[in-house]
């Protein structure tokens, strides 16, 4: 098989939403899925800012090395969509392996912003 290029993809998952729902179990689930499906993950604490919120949003950014094969990229995006749907937030920021940043709909998505 020819060498397959590998690139970094990521998802940013908040630690909690404005209602106080804690997302640490979903963050842990995400890391476990990425370890099982992609061989590993690296997680970083970070802060997010959003124009519809007056607070600093504590988050976990999870980086994953993803082979640039269409099925592998689709698997990463399907995982990101599943995780985002579980969250009671508007959307989560995802960086695709090609570097494109998209906002994947979360459980509170109301259709007022476009989703890439």
Tell me about this structure.
- With 116 residues, the protein is an alpha+beta fold.
- It has a single domain, classed as Alpha-Beta Plaits, CATH 3.30.70.120.
- Helices cover 28% and strands 32% of the residues.
- It has two helices and five strands.
- A five-stranded antiparallel beta sheet has the order 2-3-1-4-5, with helices on one face.
- A hairpin with an 8-residue loop joins strand 2 and strand 3.
- Helix 1 runs antiparallel to helix 2.
- 23% of the residues are buried.
- The mean pLDDT is 89.
Helices and strands in order, then pairings?
Layout: E1 6-14, H1 24-38, E2 42-48, E3 57-67, H2 70-86, E4 91-95, E5 101-105
Antiparallel strand pairs: 1-3, 1-4, 2-3, 4-5
Helix pairs in contact: 1-2
């Amino acid at each position: 098989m020819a060498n397959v290029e590998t690139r970094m993809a990521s998802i940013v998952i908040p630690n909690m939403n404005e209602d106080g729902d804690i997302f640490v179990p979903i963050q842990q689930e995400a890391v476990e899925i990425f370890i099982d499906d992609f061989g590993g993950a690296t997680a970083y604490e970070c802060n997010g800012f959003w124009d519809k919120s007056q607070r600093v949003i504590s988050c976990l950014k999870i980086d994953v090395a993803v082979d640039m094969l269409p099925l592998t990229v689709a698997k990463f995006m399907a995982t990101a969509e599943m995780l985002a749907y579980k969250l009671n937030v508007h959307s989560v920021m995802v960086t695709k392996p090609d570097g494109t940043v998209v906002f994947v709909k979360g459980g509170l998505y109301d259709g007022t912003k476009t989703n890439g």
